[in-house]
Amino acid sequence: MNSKKNFFELIKTDNQARLGKIKTLKGTIDTPAFMPVGTQGTVKGIFVDDILKTNTQIILGNTYHLFLRPGLDILKNVGGLHNFMNWHKPILTDSGGFQIMSLSKFRKIDKNVGAIFSSHLDGKKIILSPEKSIQIQKVINSDILMVLDECPKLTNDKKVIANAIDISTNWAKRCKVEFNNAKNKFLFGIVQGGLFNDLRNESLEKLLEINFDGFALGGLAVGEKQDEMFKVLNGITKKMPNDKPRYLMGVGTPSDILGAVKSGIDMFDCVIPTRSGRTALAFTWGGKINLRNAKYKNDKSPLDENTKLRDLNKYSKSYLNHLTNTNEILASMLVSLHNINFYQEFMREIRTKIKEGTFSAFYKKYIGMYK
Amino acid sequence: MNSKKNFFELIKTDNQARLGKIKTLKGTIDTPAFMPVGTQGTVKGIFVDDILKTNTQIILGNTYHLFLRPGLDILKNVGGLHNFMNWHKPILTDSGGFQIMSLSKFRKIDKNVGAIFSSHLDGKKIILSPEKSIQIQKVINSDILMVLDECPKLTNDKKVIANAIDISTNWAKRCKVEFNNAKNKFLFGIVQGGLFNDLRNESLEKLLEINFDGFALGGLAVGEKQDEMFKVLNGITKKMPNDKPRYLMGVGTPSDILGAVKSGIDMFDCVIPTRSGRTALAFTWGGKINLRNAKYKNDKSPLDENTKLRDLNKYSKSYLNHLTNTNEILASMLVSLHNINFYQEFMREIRTKIKEGTFSAFYKKYIGMYK
Fold first, then answer.
1. Residue of B nearest to A70 (CA)
2. How far apart are CA B254 and CA B260, in angstroms?
3. Structural domain that includes position B222
4. B269 included as an active-site residue
5. A42 contacts in B (CB within 8 Å)?
6. pLDDT tens digit sequence for B128-157
7. CA A191, CA A207: separation in Å to the nearest integer?
8. Which are the contacts of B248, defined by CB distance < 8 A and separation ≥ 6?
9. A207 and A144 both lie in a single domain
10. Which of A72, A207, B127, B198 is deepest in the core (most CB within 10 A)?
11. Which residues contact B342 (CB under 8 A, 6 or more apart)?
12. CB-closest option in B74, B298, B333 to A297
């Protein structure tokens, strides 16, 4: 258990904001950290060695997608996702719970069995039990695993949320047993509870009893307003243990991240930078830029003249506008890489400001810029 | 005129095959040379700095596409295509003739005016005269320009071909006048004549009278059999001047290139390596590989374990098969880059073999491998 005790180090706090370090066999992660999403074994549109150049220290893989394709046989054969995709730093995998809610055509939740659903690819019936989810994540060979949870859609119906907590708690226990304190791996519980503070607290308390290496917040950024999400975060983070990492799943815009860091969140993942990269929406230190806009047709300036990543500072907005208008792959490649790089620069600045004790000023400057 | 005399240097011949050097202000090109196609100001799916890493010394830009998008105003504003796309080595532009034949919805050829056609994008009526084509290519600021020609579809009708030669010769003269011996730029004539040796000879003779910096062969690789193309090449190259580069337009597979080099061709361009890259068809030293094939699902070997380009030798066929099956952009990125790199390795080997006087053995080994 000794290595697990050194998993997370809280270095400094600046009000609620936390500067920390997560240590895994595959590498160290400075927190607050952003994890690019590698849904199907690739961060969409970016070479793995370029991901490294953005100072990304951990990526996220999607258990649901990887289970369907390439499937467990191939992943087993190659020794896991790190080898398969040539990414040799830490990987966190979700449990598949979120995709069952968002993607599969038909699903039934059976507390005793698991999630019973049809593949969104071929309609094949699949049962994902808590045990199976952990087994798959072990085959993927991820460094940080998530428990299987029931992730309800946004609702005001307290009964629905309470029921999801009941099921998720049961599944969390079973995941813990199946995980069996695997060597050099870490397991996170997922706090549910929708927008209800009391249910969030209840869910957290039950997970604390089971005891995990870290705690995630699920069921947020599912359609609620940013203020509502921040309110939940303010409430729940005060009850979360200080000595373990806190992960806000599926979030978000730079603005979302700022507000969450302010409440004491340490980890984030989101498809926004890469998805936006494929639709010519760039995040920059001056705000969001829609490169499809005709006003960039003759703009010779780059997205960021100070970037030192590859030669991204040599490509003009005019050229990016042209590549976008002509549906060239290179547009997605350049803007996706730029966006991931910007997100990592943004996280590095956040960490610097917490270290200096000036996070609050940074927060005020940028909170309104990326809405 | 002095610099123009040093434009091409014939270093060595091995039977008909030629080893040479083309010298332009923007750089030297070792021949036989392959030019990746950058249709719309990007070699599809490949970062410009990676194109450089494949030892590509010249790329091709398409006048027709660049004229429509981004258009002349933007290209003028930025000082040409080199600056626009960040490629600072030589660029050759075609004249737009081929795309008028293959892409535009409606066209009329008027010898005295030029090609009158509708844009394939918005149907707008456009007149491309020989003078206009040269003016556009000057705005693109390419290093090697092509005359506007009428490029007829494959036909056995000798009259159609003879008429195209008549028009093309007239246009070639007007292009030469408009070109006005531009400083540090070079103009190529285009030999037409379909599959008729006598018409090819007639076209070449007329172009020799006008006098150009190099001579291209147009109207080949438009649907005829490889043997038919080789027969035309064998005939016409014997009549082409030794002291000027010979360019076979739009060709081809590695096998096509081998046969053409054997006849004494120096330059090639083709979309095959990048287009195949987007459909998971890889060219390797062992032949063509269709990565969609299920037999690669568990194949841990890379496309080429000896490649030193980026870390292409770390990606298994199994991973590429997965990326292809899941429609991931990275599949196009990796296979396109691999293919351009392979083509350039193939050209380097061709040059080495000509230098050593062993091209004939190399030809025999590979001529049947990429059909």
1. B322
2. 10
3. 2-270
4. yes
5. 323, 328, 330
6. 999 999 999 999 999 999 999 998 888 999
7. 7
8. B216, B217, B220, B221, B233, B260, B265, B267, B268
9. yes
10. A207
11. B273, B282, B283, B284, B285, B304
12. B74
How far apart are alpha carbons A253 and A249 in whole angstroms?
12
Considering A252, A270, A288, which residue would you say is the last residue of a domain? A270
Distance from CA of B73 to the nearest CA of A (A): 9
Same domain for A185 and A37: yes
| Residue B94 a catalytic site member | yes
Q: How many structural domains does chain A have?
A: 2
Classify residue A71 as exposed, middle or buried by CB count within 10 Å of its CB (0-12, 13-18, 19+): middle
Tell me, yes or no, whether A265 and A287 share the same domain: no
A77 inside 8 A of chain B by CB: yes
- Helix or strand holding residue B52 (H, E): helix B48-53
Active-site annotation holder among B50, B256, B266, B269 = B269
Residue written as token pair 């400083």: B183
CB pairs under 8 A between A and B: 111
Q: Cα(A174)–Cα(B17) distance, rounded to whole angstroms? A: 72
Asked if A222 and A80 sit in the same domain, the reply is yes
Q: Are residues A22 and A33 in contact, defined by beta-carbon separation less than 8 angstroms?
A: yes
Structure confidence by residue, pLDDT tens digits, B84-123: 999 999 999 999 888 877 876 778 899 999 998 888 888 8
Shortest CB distance from A322 goes to which of B45, B70, B298?
B70
Residue A114 lies inside a defined structural domain of this protein: no
The verdict on whether omega for the bond into residue B302 sits within 30 degrees of 0, i.e. cis, is no
Q: Which of A45, A70, A84 sits opposite B330 (nearest CB)?
A: A45
Number of H helices, E strands in chain A: 15, 16
Judgement on whether residues A301 and A167 belong to the same structural domain of the protein? no
- The complex's ipTM works out to 0.96
Of B69, B322, B330, Cβ closest to residue A326? B69
* A292 inside domain: yes
Lowest mean pLDDT across A117-126, A195-204, A337-346 = A117-126
Burial zone of B1 (CB within 10 Å; 0-12 exposed, 13-18 middle, 19+ buried): exposed
Residue B254 lies in a domain: yes
CA nearest to B65 within chain A: A326
Rounded to the nearest angstrom, the minimum Cα separation between A291 and chain B is 14
pTM of the full structure: 0.97
Q: Nearest chain B Cα to A78, which residue?
A: B300
* Tokens (6 digits) for A131: 């045990």
Mutation site for A-interface testing, chosen from B318, B322, B332 by largest number of A Cβ within 10 Å: B322
CB contact under 8 A, B322 and A78: no
Q: CB B84 to CB A316 under 8 A?
A: yes
Quote the strand ranges of chain A, DSSP E.
8-14, 17-24, 27-31, 33-38, 59-61, 91-93, 107-110, 114-118, 125-128, 144-146, 186-191, 214-217, 246-248, 267-270, 281-284, 287-290
